[in-house]
Design brief:
This protein is 21% helix and 33% strand. The protein has 157 residues and is of the alpha/beta class. It has one domain (2-147): Dihydrofolate Reductase, subunit A (3-Layer(aba) Sandwich), CATH 3.40.430.10. Bound molecules: NADP nicotinamide-adenine-dinucleotide phosphate. NADP nicotinamide-adenine-dinucleotide phosphate binds next to strand 1, strand 2, strand 3, helix 2 and helix 4.
């Protein structure tokens, strides 16, 4: 199964200049707790923004240029994302797609869950989560934090 994990502001903004537009420690802890000991999949730009494989997780990176990442440790490269999603969308194992926008757009048709931290306010952003229709999802969990509201969306059958 596929879950997209994202933090977005009130306008759907998720990134600026290759980084996160905010620093919200509580959300980073929430992200860590959700993904720890699981498989995470990210685009090459998101990997570069993090700078290294995240510990205690299976790190998958999608790129057209696997040779540029060959010296990275604890990383597996994926070059055919569509086949990957087709093979894993019904798997028992949860795959967490952690961005960015280019990868979320490709994951959305296959994702059963969206784990969204709705950051309060608006920020200057140059990267946005792709459009999705709330009506296609049930909200199955809501948690309120100081700087954001976390909602878990499940795609309707
Ligand atoms: N707020 C959040 O929750 C959140 C989460 C993640 C990221 N972000 C932010 O989002 C921004 C990055 O997002 P982005 O959309 O620009 O980039 P991205 O999705 O992280 O990475 C895009 C790159 O991934 C590779 N890629 C994507 N689809 C592919 C495919 N089908 N086959 C092969 N390679 C593929 C390509 O790399 P090559 O060019 O190497 O082929 C492409 O240039 C940053 O600002 C980051 O901080 C925010």
């Amino acid at each position: 199964m596929i879950t997209c994990v994202v933090a977005m502001d009130e306008q759907g903004g998720i990134g600026l200049n290759g980084s996160l537009p905010w620093h919200i420690k509580e959300d980073l802890i929430h992200f860590r707790n959700m993904t720890l000991h699981h498989t995470i999949l990210m685009g090459k730009k998101t990997f570069l923004s993090i700078g290294k494989a995240l510990p205690k997780r299976r790190n998958l990176v999608v790129t057209h240029h696997p040779e540029l990442l060959k010296d990275e440790k604890n990383l597996e490269v994926i070059d055919d994302i569509e086949t990957f999603f087709k093979e894993n969308s019904n798997s028992e194992e949860m795959i967490y797609v952690i961005g960015g926008a280019i990868v979320y757009a490709q994951a959305l048709p296959y994702a059963k869950y969206l784990a969204i931290s709705h950051i309060k306010g608006t920020f200057t952003c140059d990267t946005f989560f792709p459009h999705f229709d709330d009506n296609d999802y049930d909200i199955i969990k809501i948690e309120t934090f100081e700087a954001f509201v976390f909602k878990m969306y499940e795609k309707k059958q």
